[in-house]
Design brief:
Elements: E1 7-8, E2 12-18, E3 21-26, E4 29-37, E5 40-47, E6 68-71, E7 75-79, E8 84-88, E9 93-97, E10 103-106, E11 113-116, E12 119-125, E13 131-134, E14 148-151, E15 168-169, E16 172-177, E17 180-186, E18 192-196, E19 203-208, E20 213-219, H1 223-234, E21 248-249, H2 257-269, E22 276-279, H3 300-309, E23 313-318, E24 322-323, H4 329-336, E25 351-353, E26 356-359, H5 366-375, H6 377-381, E27 386-389, E28 406-407, E29 414-415, H7 416-439, E30 445-448, E31 451-452, E32 460-462, H8 470-485, E33 491-492, E34 494-495, H9 504-514, E35 521-522, H10 538-553, H11 555-568, E36 573-575, H12 576-579, E37 594-597, E38 601-604, E39 612-617, E40 621-624, E41 630-632, E42 635-640, E43 648-651, E44 655-658, E45 672-678, E46 684-690, E47 704-711, E48 716-719, E49 732-738, E50 746-748, E51 751-753, E52 756-758, E53 782-784, E54 788-789, E55 797-800
Parallel strand pairs: 15-31, 21-22, 21-35, 22-23, 23-27, 27-30, 30-32, 32-33, 34-35, 45-49
Antiparallel strand pairs: 1-11, 2-3, 3-4, 4-5, 5-20, 6-7, 7-8, 8-9, 9-10, 11-12, 12-19, 13-16, 14-18, 16-17, 17-20, 18-19, 24-26, 25-26, 28-29, 36-37, 37-38, 38-43, 39-42, 40-41, 40-43, 44-45, 46-47, 47-48, 48-55, 49-53, 49-54, 50-51, 50-55, 52-53
Helix pairs in contact: 5-7, 9-10
The structure holds ligand MIG.
Residues 252, 280-281, 317, 390-391, 449, 464-465, 523 line the site of ligand MIG.
Length: 801
């Protein structure tokens, strides 16, 4: 009978302190409380007979941390330098407090850790003011309160604003209560449910179909730090090849080779910057991985070389399903090496995907991952440096894989129920390891559709088969921000919509917004309208070129933001909840599609049909990008939002490095770095970062880092001495002052320099239909400072006004 009714952790029988925390014994379970570091406490609850086992998400080990344990009559109090944990003895319950006694998070008073059969649940009291954000690639609004979600990686073709689950499972969320942000990472790969007070007003809970209760409670002073702590546990995004930050054009599918070259030439002739073209499933012979369709692509090596000469990389799709066909090399090798997942009776699991009947490599086996990496040898011979993992949920024609299928799981053996959600993560890992094995000195790019916590260590993630509507465009913006909150800074969506046809305006707006997405790729489905900029007519082409140009000119800024993400997990597309978590306005439906791109640009994603939009500017000072009009924050405004002007605002105090326009990241810009300074009351620091963009030499200090500081009170801008051995490409800087009142000379390293006046347009006006720039009071004057010897000196540069 107890199997059917809720069972809780019960009372404390005994406890013991150890070097990482405490071990508690309850009626029918053992609890390990592990102080992971100052800011993280891990709670592991194993029922009799259960073991923690391998985690694919985790990369960190507990760091010995000082903590104290106090044994009181009714409770145990454990203190780290940042968190106070109280454990009630009568019925084991956990409550977390700040050092000064503010409650952050507490178990439901009766349930706490509970079980219903094999299903394990943690019930947390739902606090009146509590908000919930994160959980990665999830639909709906940014505040997840009142919602419930399931984690079970699913091929969700044409998903919409309410669909759940999708392709990626990252069981980590951030809550905010009593003005305190905290994170909970529930590292259980089984099908899990997160309920944030949906259908009840008593608790927020997370539960797993099976397995142990294993969660990490993170508390720190800011949301940024909580994300960083989560990345400490699950890993950081490695530095990406710079080309993967450029614009990417995809289509299901471009073929034959002449068509691919034609697309490439069109981009170059029309002067629309681009770095990557994609080959979807039709490049293969009968959809067989590691093969080429010889009539469509007679000489892939030559085609790839020609594209590279044009500054364009090629990325190819790879599905996990291996066609069952005696004459197919990869199949034969797979059978010989026993790499495929099986039924418990030792026969291979077969299911239909693109090539027909397929077997599926067991990427949870280290030997199979090595086998996959070895198979990739062939693809490097033709010159590939980028790979796209699709269908790795794994998806078999929209159906469920039988639960009894068995996986190696690093030798621990697991059924599909446990291995399903990590399958995509392990395929991406095998692919990433293949690139490391063969490309050696070069950074490669891997894109994946499916994943689990930790996926950022191997691949960028795109949000799958979205639909071409305004609502779905905005949904993608929120999903990418949510992924940023969940340790995945390199994320993007199919620009233009995968399913259905975007009209001209939707396409323009989507491309404008996506110029400010971390991963920037246009893609569309077979038998729908293709997404090359010129296919939407001249107006679209000009608009889209403008925004792609802007992205390329912002490359020094974007690259620095990617570097920061690789170090601290600070996302590139930043949910406003990171910097303004306590401002209720940013959670409002009408404003929840606004986000920061890097530290400085407030991007307000608005519908293509909106000619006027309500916009909320959070605390601070803001400049309208196109005209430099100044606004005080914490107010809402009604703005004109014509299709050629995505509402973008620059934060006061910002320091924005830019370069001259190039057609790809392979092309060198001029040797002048343009630095834009925006006046603001508060001081700002920008960490400028530069390296060769392709190799791993940066690990040997082959980088150039320079801290740039704006000091409002002292009226100065300082570039600190270079750190690192890399010789910057830039020889000069040009400083642009926005919003300053400069009347006389400016001092550079104590010498007087004259100020010039020059207009700087972030977007080139589209003259024939846009009256915007005819207005004489338009572009605020921008002063231009003569060049300063910049890089490769170890001196600092000091500008005063
Ligand atoms: O069954 O490879 O999400 O981006 O173009 C569809 C064809 C398989 C799904 C991916 C999509 C890709 C498509 N794939």
């Amino acid at each position: 009978m107890s199997r059917n009714l809720n069972e809780t952790l019960g009372k404390l029988l005994s406890f013991e302190e150890n070097k990482h925390g405490i071990q508690l014994k309850a009626d029918n379970a053992t609890v390990e409380v592990i102080v992971y570091n100052d800011a993280i406490i891990n709670i592991q609850v194993c029922k009799d007979g259960q073991e923690a086992g391998h985690s694919y998400a985790l990369v960190a080990e507990a760091i010995p941390t000082s903590f104290s344990v106090e044994n009181k009559r009714d409770k145990i109090i454990l203190k780290t330098p940042k968190i106070v944990l109280e454990i009630l003895k009568k019925q084991i319950r956990f409550s977390f407090f700040t050092l000064d006694g503010t409650l952050i998070n507490e178990d439901d008073k009766s349930f706490g850790c509970s079980w219903l059969g094999t299903e394990a649940t943690v019930y947390k009291k739902l606090q009146a003011d509590e908000k919930f954000i994160g959980l990665g690639e999830k639909t709906r609004g940014i505040n997840r309160r009142g919602q419930a979600y399931v984690n079970w990686n699913t091929d969700s073709f044409a998903y919409r604003g309410e669909t759940d689950p999708l392709y990626v499972s990252t069981p980590f969320y951030i809550g905010i209560h009593n003005d305190q942000p905290y994170g909970i990472f529930f590292d259980n790969p089984h099908k899990t449910t997160f309920n944030f007070g949906a259908g009840n007003d008593r608790f927020a809970y997370f539960s797993a179909e099976d397995g142990i209760i294993n969660y990490y409670f993170i508390y720190d002073t800011s949301i940024a730090k909580i994300i960083q702590n989560y990345a400490q546990l699950t890993g950081f995004m490695p530095m990406q090849p710079k080309w993967s930050l450029g614009f990417q054009q995809c289509r299901y599918s471009y073929y034959p080779d002449t068509e691919v070259m034609n697309i490439a030439q069109n981009f170059r002739e029309r002067k629309i910057p681009i770095d990557v073209l994609y080959l979807d499933i039709h490049y293969m012979d009968a959809y067989k991985v590691f093969t080429w369709n010889k009539s469509r692509f007679p000489n892939p090596q030559k085609m790839l070389a020609n594209l590279k000469k044009m500054g364009i990389q090629t990325v190819v799709i790879m599905d996990p399903g291996i066609k069952v066909e005696e004459s197919y090399k990869t199949y034969k090798s797979g059978m010989k090496n026993d790499v495929f997942v099986k039924y418990p009776d030792d026969s291979c699991f077969t299911a239909g995907v693109w090539p027909g009947d397929c077997h599926f490599p067991d990427y949870t086996n280290p030997k199979v991952r090595k086998w996959w990496s070895d198979q990739m040898k062939e693809v490097f011979k033709v010159g590939l440096e980028g790979f796209w993992n699709d269908m790795n949920e794994p998806a078999v024609w929209g159906k469920e894989i039988p639960a009894l299928i068995e996986f190696d799981y690093e030798g621990e053996k697991a059924s599909h129920k446990k291995a399903h959600n990590v399958y995509g993560l392990q395929m991406a890992r095998a692919t990433f390891e293949g690139t490391q094995q063969h490309l050696k000195k070069k950074r490669a790019f891997v894109l994946t559709r499916s994943g689990y916590s930790g996926i950022q260590r191997y691949a960028a993630v795109w949000t799958g088969d979205n639909v071409a509507t305004d609502d779905d465009m905005l949904l993608g913006v929120r999903m990418v921000c949510s992924m940023g909150l969940t340790g995945m800074p390199f994320a993007g969506y199919d620009v233009g919509g995968f399913v259905g046809d975007a009209d001209k305006n939707l396409y323009i707006r989507w491309m404008s917004i996506a110029s400010f997405a971390p991963f920037f790729r246009s893609h569309s489905m077979i038998n729908t309208r293709s997404g090359e900029p010129w296919t939407f007519g001249e107006e679209a082409e000009e608009n889209v070129r403008n925004y792609i140009n802007l992205r390329y000119r912002l490359m020094p800024y974007i690259y620095s933001a990617f570097y920061e993400a690789s170090q601290t997990a600070m996302p590139i597309a930043r949910s406003l909840t990171i910097d303004y978590p306590l401002d209720g306005n940013i959670y409002r439906g009408e404003f929840e599609n606004e986000y920061l791109f890097g530290p400085s640009f407030l991007v307000c994603a608005v519908k293509s049909t909106a000619m006027f939009s309500k916009i909320y500017l959070p605390k601070g000072e803001w400049y309208y990008l196109y005209k430099d009009n100044f606004y005080e924050g914490e107010q809402e405004f009604l703005f004109e939002t014509p299709i050629d002007k995505l509402p973008i605002f620059v934060k006061g105090g910002s320091i924005i490095p830019m370069q001259s326009l190039t057609q790809s990241t392979a092309e060198k810009p001029t040797n002048t770095l343009d630095i834009h300074l925006y006046w603001g009351q508060n001081d700002h620091v920008f960490e400028y970062y530069e390296d060769d963009g392709t190799s791993f030499e940066f690990k040997k200090e082959q980088y150039c880092k320079r801290a740039m500081l704006f000091n409002s009170e002292e009226k100065s801008f300082t570039i600190e001495p270079k750190i690192g051995k890399y010789k910057s490409h830039f020889k000069k800087i040009k400083l642009y002052f926005h919003g300053f009142t400069l009347d006389k000379n400016v001092k550079v390293n104590s010498r007087n320099k004259k100020i010039k006046q020059e207009n700087f347009e972030f977007i080139v006006p589209i003259s024939h239909f846009d009256p915007w720039y005819q207005d004489p009071d338009t572009s605020k004057l921008i002063e231009d400072l003569p060049f300063v010897e910049f890089a490769n000196t170890n001196e600092s540069v000091q500008v005063e006004w």
